[in-house]
Amino acid sequence: MNLLKSSRRYQEGVKRVSGSFGGVLDRIPATELSALRKRMTADAAAQGLVYQTDDGVLHPIDVMLRPRLVMADQRAYLHRVCGTLQGAHEKLLDLWFGHQRVRRLLPLGDAEERWMTELRPPKGLLERLFCRFDASVDFADPRWVERCPFFESNTTGVGGIHFTAAVDALAMDIVSPTLQRAIPALLLDRNDDPRLQLLEVLADRARELGLRRFNVAMAQFKDLVGGPQEFELITQFMRSRGVEAVDVDPRELCVRGEELYARDTPVDIVYRDHETAELARVEAEGHDLSGLRWAFAHGRVVSSLAGEFDHKSAYEVFTSSEFDRAFTADERRVFRRHVPWTRLVREVLTDGPEGEEVDLVPFVRAHREALVLKPNRGFGGEGIVLGREATDSEWDSGIDVALTEPSTWVVQRYRPVAEKQFPRVNDDGSLRFEEYFCVLGFYVSPQGLGILGRVSRKKVVNVSQKGGLVSVLRVL
Q: Which residue range(s) make up the domain with 47?
């Protein structure tokens, strides 16, 4: 894989847009600018762009007026990188079953292990994942490739699928015409729709299994509170594309004869929102999940069991020389270029960020400003400790907590998050520009690349942390 360089055409285009977009908005009358913003807010609500907190309250998600732009060569490169990362994740199930060392780095609870061993499909059936890979990218940076770290992987219960499509539609309907009036040769379009990408991956699995029908169950616990509210909207989209799809609670799946049903609808493929840890917990409470178990055992679930290993400690498997032989030369190149050095926090001698052997705990204590502490299996940005923003005592305390909670924390090399200015509209219609940290989530499928843009005034960027969304449009 050759190192791509940003094209001169893109650099010049971004410079023109960056230099002129603020001026374009400045020339819009205050009343019109306010109307533009109000339309964006109203349409976002109508598109279901809300986030539910753990107490069940729905909050609107802020959507930026200004899109980010990506060129075709950048899309092609990132598609290859994400496809390579997904292929590496698909190998983790066999590695977990075959290597005790990998099992220690990717720890599962007893109930999870039982699900894994009891429900592993027959050999020869490929793992099939639907993933989102989170990274920081500044497309206008001439050195964007080498400054593009992938912080973590989402391989089960991927969020933002509907949000991405909705935000891109808003940008094309509301913002793109304004940009094109100012710069007529700037032609923009959406990136790939993650809802279609999900259908692509589900259909690939159905074809692999030789199924003659393609009925889809979107399986999510109905009493779930908190997080993005997307499953019903995704189900509606699938129906609009002619697919028989149902939004179902996993407890409503059952087997009749040799066929899976969601209530009274026969089902062929299941997209699951939950990790086996949560499924096992619900099963232990006395609920019947035999239908979902049957689907796992017959290879009917996406993401398949390899999706359990979206632990951040998977990046230790990727960045440790001990496991080099498990991965191809292309995979190792992607790891070196884009995966930050990551280690499960414990007392151990290991290879450090530069390949040197280090005593991990003393090394982590001594290099606070270059490192980040993260919950191994957490999400939503909760619990992250940025070493450069912590005091020595706070950092040492975080390490001590990690050591008393084995296998639950990782330390990762700090890589800066891209910062961008976005226009904000005051109540009187006047314009101001504010600095935001930006993180992108890349949805990958064999044919497509969808891009979720998130922004925050905080360095930990997440919608659950009161962050916002930004469209990422491709330049034609």
A: 8-311+418-475
